[in-house]
TrEMBL record, chain A:
Family designation: Belongs to the EMC8/EMC9 family.
Domain MPN: 7-140
Organism: Actinidia chinensis var. chinensis (Chinese soft-hair kiwi)
Descriptive protein name: ER membrane protein complex subunit 8/9 like
Pfam family for this entry, one: UPF0172
Residues forming coiled coils: none
UniProtKB/TrEMBL annotation, chain B:
Subunit structure: Component of the ER membrane protein complex (EMC).
The name this protein goes by in its record: ER membrane protein complex subunit 2
Recorded family membership: Belongs to the EMC2 family.
UniProt keyword terms in alphabetical order: Endoplasmic reticulum, Membrane, Repeat, TPR repeat
Species of provenance: Actinidia chinensis var. chinensis
Membrane topology category: Peripheral membrane protein
Amino acid sequence: MGGELRYEIGQTAYIKLVLHALKHKTAAVNGVLLGRLSDGDAVEIADAVPLFHSHLGLLPPLEIALLQIEEYYGAQGMAIVGYFHANERFNDFELSNVARNIGDHVHRYFPQAALLLLDSKKLEALPKGKDRSPVMQLYTKDSSKSWKQVGSDGSSRFSIKEPSANIVLLDYISTQKMQDMVDFDDHLDDISKDWLNPELGK
Amino acid sequence: MVSKTEEAQVNRLENQVDNGGGGAWEYLCLVRKLKLRRSDKVLKHGLSILNDPSKRSSLGHEEWTLYEQVAIAAMDCQCLDVAKGCINVLQKKFPGSKRVGRLEAMLLEAKGSWAEAGKAYSSLLEDNALDQVIHKRRAAMEKAQGNLSGAIECLNKYLEIFMADHDAWRELAEIYVSLQMYKQAAFCYEELILSQPTNPLCHLAYADVLYTVGGLENLQAAKKYYASVIDLTGGKNTRALFGICLCTCAIGQLTKGRNKEEKESLELQSLAATALEKDYKQIAPSKLSLLRSTLKSLKLA
């Protein structure tokens, strides 16, 4: 099931999620991962939609968001393949109950679901090194029915598709690109704001 | 909680100052008044005034208020040297001041010296037991250390004395929501609605919590509160319009086979749906078909 599956996240999805977290440094944020199972041995995370930066534990906005997101990406042959969460505090590496619950929901429809947790320490260290690995921790739900971290031993089960993604990310950070990120919260407050973030998809 | 107009106003000013159009002092005053957390901007623009002797002297007595505002912003941005510099200036001007003492304790907090900061706050409280800021800093320290139950305890004790502090009720509600303690969050929002009955945001948060808890009674109550948000905002709140649709759908699922409920609820839902379609058509046409299918799946329950 979730045995030796590889997880690969595309640059666009990766950057959207990190920029969203950086836009709201003082809050917990979350997002959904879109993609597909490819060749039966890898989960391809092709895109991401940043969801909320406040009241992550409330259902109504989440339900509306998931309905619209499933509809849009379903038409493109993609499904919700995971969930992203960034904790409020810098050195907090715990999976909150909200993260687990939403992760469980995604897992019900996609058993190979990926739960990504932002690694803020790794993110902080990014400008100082040449790390090409994602600044996130990957959790999957194994047969014991609990979320377990994958690849913390530096194995290559979780990687970014484009090797220079972190360089692009750092460039975007230096040009304050995170201010342009639109999440579903922003959309609900002003529907003219597009949660697809089309300019960042290029 | 800031209204849309206030937020638009402050954003406009921020843009203006960012692009060199002046108005820094006006911007800083507005941020202070609305109690917004925009520390990187406050730091940048506040320092540009403080580092310029002529701009500084034109502030008169307000100079010291700005030093305090910049000190706090610097601490939030982890620019502790800048914060120390501002505090030193204030110490020289107001030796022995409790207000400056409070800033010194906050600096200890910013450095992560929790125990020392706690001691400093306690001794400050000995002389002034009713200092609301210090009481709340103690709750903030618990939260910063990841001790959410400690923060909850602090806030509850605080609210027993200062029960009119809306910000504290809101903070407590948000902590409860993050821990999925929805009933307790609901209680906080009830207090807020009692004291601010015409603030639609309180009604909205309360409705969201009620919906999240679920069950027929809560869903029916949630629908009423979404309706009051629509009433208070002249139908302009997208979240409330969606809320009506979600509630009607969920209530319909729970009362399947019972005829009474269905007739009255459908009217409200179709009004909300029509309003949403109109808004999306006008403002977000690219999302209109997505909206329509969302509404369709909500009606089909």
